[in-house]
Amino acid sequence: MGPVRRWLVVMSVAGVVPLVVRVFEFPALKILWDANAYGSIVWILLGLHTTHLLTDLGDTLVLTVLMFTRHGHSGRRFSDVHDNAFYWDFVVVSWIPIYLLIYWAPRLR
Prior knowledge:
Helix 1 runs antiparallel to helix 2. The protein is mainly alpha-helical and 109 residues long. It has one domain (2-108). The radius of gyration is 17 Å and the shape is elongated. The chain has helices spanning 2-28, 37-67, 76-104. The model has no long low-confidence stretch (mean pLDDT 89).
């Protein structure tokens, strides 16, 4: 139980970091969402990824709180933590093609 609690707290903090970066990233974009098709794609991709970050952070925070209560001792919660870790993998891996498309593809032309 100790390592699960510790790493849930770490992931809760680590989940806030990309959201703080995203707060600065949206205003720094050199294109508006309604400028052209590229602008729309950039904004929708960042928006969808931000939504995934928010929902996964919310899930991680709920699991973190549960693990520090009596509800965390049921074996069922460990499968919830496993599912949460799998979803974090999805969020991180999905950022790779989004990053390449938004920040590297425009420089290739």
